[in-house]
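seq/struct pair 1
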Amino acid sequence: MCKICKGFTRVAAILSVLCYIGISFQAASAVWNITYPQSEVESDIRDIYSLALLELALQKTGVRYELTQSLQPMKQPRALKRLEENLDINLIWSMTDTVREQQLRPIRIPITRGLIGWRVFLSHQNSPFLEAPINDITDLLEFSPVQGISWPDTKILQANGFNVITARDYIESTQFINTQQADFFPRSVIEVMQELDNQYSVNMQRRKDLVFYYPSALYFFTNKQNITLSRLIETGLNRAIEDGSFEKLFNEHFGETLEILDIKNALNFRLANPLLPPLTPIDEARYWYYPNQ
């Protein structure tokens, strides 16, 4: 090979290496911009915990990131639709079902360790429901719960035989309880204590001796095509589980609440969840909370 050709080859090799280094540096220094829907309820405990867990997962991966909420509050149906269309937001946390997993990309690690499926009952302080003798599921089916019309919980309860009163959203659900158009409002253990302190629940009480449980999971979801972001968050969550920081954060946020609610000593009705996707990692014990352990 002539000297000129060798020179060109050497220059090309050097440029190739420099280009590779530049691309690698750019990838390493890139900032991950993650936008999530702004909640309609200020200081929602579900959002506070989910954001803290998201930050923990991202920190475990070592990437640079910036978390931003959408410019306007979003009701859940709109947020799910915008994420599916890859508009305005690129991440959401939501209860899973078969339809959502078809439309979006789930990160199949239950972020609240299944607590979303543990439900306690709120009712109007003057409602007969609070003192009614309930010893089995047949007794409970005599009463009508209220749920949001687009919530997966509604279909789950209907599939188990309940006459569900449907509302447009959380606020209207509380109105149905306050006007005694519905008998009780099943709320997950992760949200009920905060809700009892808000302005919509001033006339409500919790029935302390009853709970029901159906297997369910609250996941982070990305757009179907956003594989990279999905895998990044999944990697961080698994690292947090392995080093114990996931459980530590969980206990910091929910440990006191679980002691107060004492669900392990309540009469527990286990319901079927026909909407549970087949790939839900039910048998992965490290992902789930068990009250009696």
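seq/struct pair 2
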Amino acid sequence: MSIPHPHTVNIFLSCLRLLKIYDHKHSQQPSLRSPVFFNSGGHLLLRFVVFFILTAGLIAPLPKSVFGNQRSHQITTFQADYTRAKKYLHALQQAPAQEKDRLQWLNGVRNFRRIYLQNPRDPLAPACLYMMARTYRQMFQRFHLPIDLDEAINSYQQLTSRFENNRLADDALFAVATLYEREKKDPERALELYTTIINRYPREKTRRIVMYSGDSLDDFAHQFSRLTQLSVRDIFDDYFRYSPYIDGGILAGYYRLPFRLASAPAMAYMTGKSEKAFAALAEKYLGHYDPADF
């Protein structure tokens, strides 16, 4: 049952005083009007007005300060629950006996899911989805169950679709691309996701890679290795996996690649983009495109 606001109580008391004065006055002084009209109709009309005022006061919305206090308390509760959920996972990782129990990990996921479902629009909602996904990913690494991998991908994708502009969205999308590349063994899907990152986050989460005009593949591979700390051998191996050319398979120009990108998707992206440029030039000047002609 809700408690009336003080303003409503004041209105109620004022109306009671009004009725008391009315009854006292007209019980002492006879009315010039018909007694039947005055004692029934007039009195009834006044009581109706009083009832209307009281009803409006009772159902009137509370001040924003009241809702603000409730909202503040709710946010504090969510933050406390989120902190406890993270501490649970941390304690689980520090307990060798318990971390071998998959049910303990599922309890960790449920903690974050419960917080998310209580208020999916709360500022902590994206973080809850991210922690759910990361926990499922850790479960897959420990127990090697495909369902955990699928749940990790699903949670990451929920984050990127529902909170596209959140600071965790690009990390989640990158994680999905990595899982498709390394665990699902689906390089085509991984490349699509990496390309989405490049197009969606062109500045904040990417670095500029330059293929200078006149540079050989060897020059570029060593330069790329210094920037990314990737192995030169891996760069060469992945280049020849995706490009039909011994050299010159990466067109001179600027490329933007996500940080932490492995050599395979990087080479797939740059050679694929260059291949499209070669095909467009060939169609324009030769009328057809055949890699053997280049």
